[in-house]
Design goal:
The complex is a heterodimer of chains A (115) and B (115).
Chain A lengths: L3 E2 L4 E5 L4 E3 L2 E2 L6 E8 L6 E7 L6 E3 L2 E6 L4 E6 L8 E9 L7 E2 L3 E6 L1
Parallel strand pairs in A: 2-12
Antiparallel strand pairs in A: 1-4, 3-9, 5-6, 5-10, 7-8, 8-9, 10-11, 10-12
Chain B lengths: L4 E3 L2 E4 L5 E6 L6 E7 L6 E7 L2 E4 L8 E4 L6 E5 L8 E8 L9 E2 L3 E5 L1
Parallel strand pairs in B: 2-11
Antiparallel strand pairs in B: 1-3, 3-8, 4-5, 4-9, 5-6, 7-8, 9-10, 9-11
The chains are: A mainly beta (115), B mainly beta (115).
Chain lengths: 115, 115
């Protein structure tokens, strides 16, 4: 079974629109971490944020914000006032205490911001 | 400082040939990971090193795949008798400790094409 599901394969928005990327995860561990990575056309995966399973506080960093809800096993990522430079593939990932070294990645959401 | 370096960036080989892919992690990072990313998919775990030893090789698809990290720094992923299905981007990542809360730092990957 897929441990991390990103149901949105591709999203297109017009510049300055807000966009939310969905991530649903599955785990039986009580201790786990969730991550978001950005993969621009250049190919290198860039770490954006980490969240642990005991901290459900939402986080904001500039135009980026993350909503972690354990009740729905979701860790969604919102970009406010999107810019062309936000165009990339975004991956959600999970690491668990019991399988520590295997980070599980979703299939990614390709975001295109149209100028 | 220098990030994770992977060479070559592109490799084209004929079916049945042997290939070696190299990864130079961030200096001081004890944990090193190999992932494989097929088109339109997220990275899939192959193998994890802690120091010189392969702590988890459960993701290697078959015995044609092998990886080493003899001095606890540079790693080489080796693929014997390559098949067309091995075509993918092979990603290397490192982290300071390998703990589940430690984000992975990725290289740009090696795009392997088997003809």
């Amino acid at each position: 079974a897929q441990k991390v599901t990103q149901a949105q394969t591709e999203i297109s928005v017009v510049e300055k629109e807000d966009v939310t990327l969905d991530c649903v995860y599955e785990t039986r561990d009580t201790t786990y971490y969730l991550f978001w990575y950005k993969q621009p056309p250049s190919g290198e995966l860039v770490f954006l944020i980490r969240r642990n399973s005991f901290d459900e506080q939402n986080e904001i960093s500039g135009r980026y914000s993350w909503n972690f809800q354990k009740s729905t096993s979701s860790f969604n990522f919102t970009i406010t006032a999107s810019q062309v430079v936000d165009s990339a593939v975004y991956f959600c990932a999970l690491s668990e205490e019991n399988t520590g070294n295997q980070f599980y990645f979703g299939t990614g959401t390709s975001l295109t911001v149209i100028p | 400082g220098a990030g994770v370096s992977q060479t070559p960036s592109n490799k084209v080989t004929e079916k049945g040939k042997y290939v070696e892919l190299r990864c130079d992690p961030i200096s001081g990072h004890t944990a090193l990971y190999w992932y494989r990313q097929s088109l339109g998919q997220g990275p899939e775990f192959l193998i994890y090193f802690q120091g010189t030893g392969a702590a988890d090789d459960s993701g290697l698809p078959n015995d044609r795949f092998f990886a080493v990290r003899p001095e606890g720094s540079v790693s080489t992923l080796k693929i014997q008798r390559t098949e067309r299905g091995d075509s993918a981007v092979y990603l290397c990542a490192s982290s300071p400790t390998g703990s589940i809360n430690s984000p992975l730092h990725f290289g740009n990957g090696t795009r392997l094409t088997v003809t």
